[in-house]
Amino acid sequence: MSENIKGKVVVITGASSGLGEAAARLLAKEGAKLVLGARRLDRLEALAAELSLGKDAILRTDVTKVDEIRRLVDHAVEMHGRVDVIINNAGLMPHSPLERGKVEDWDRMIDVNIKGVLYGIAAVLPHMKTQRSGHIINVSSVAGHKVNPGGAVYAATKHAVRVISEGLRQEVKPYNIRTTIISPGAVATELPDSVTEADVAKGVRALYDRVAIPADSFARTVVFAMSQPDDVDINEILFRPTAQEY
Q1: Which option is the CATH number for 9-91+103-185+216-239: 2.40.50.100, 3.40.50.150, 3.40.50.720, 3.40.1190.10?
Q2: The model's pTM
Q3: From 119, 154, 175, 208, the catalytic residue
């Protein structure tokens, strides 16, 4: 199913690799009009060239800075006259036991995983309210449903994404805006590279090497949610590799 996508203006954060890149590839194939943001401009430029998007379709964006996300969304509206979908995808996962006191890693997760989503919502809501339409897709995780040792702060940030998204779902009903939470399990991306503790990283990589599925699995869930008729709101999708226990 891929109806209801062609011509839609879609903003994606964290689009230079992993889930965001996979979503961009599939949505481009389905005829969406993409505006991509990420910190690594060289990666964005290569992706835009590959997908024949043009340089105007990308913008260096740090999701921890609200002005940069607003600039990304406003740029999409300037280019296309509207914004139909935002995929708040940027995230990182520096797991560590709480007793190690990795305060800098905690702050980074809060800034990217929570504030980055909030800033994306703040950037698109004025436009979508005016349009009286839109779709906000927020990326959570299996860790937003379950906690394991070493993953408490990451799980807290991803649970926060689900809580924020549910509150948003209820608040935007008067404006005909749809909301979707997508919670992936182990998907083959650069996410394990954000783990800063060597012993923890070893365990995370072992799990991913054993069970991780390709990033296009995420892209297909995005297409499924977006493809529904306008009166159908897919609010939450949780998926894992078939082999994943956690």
Answers
A1: 3.40.50.720
A2: 0.95
A3: 154
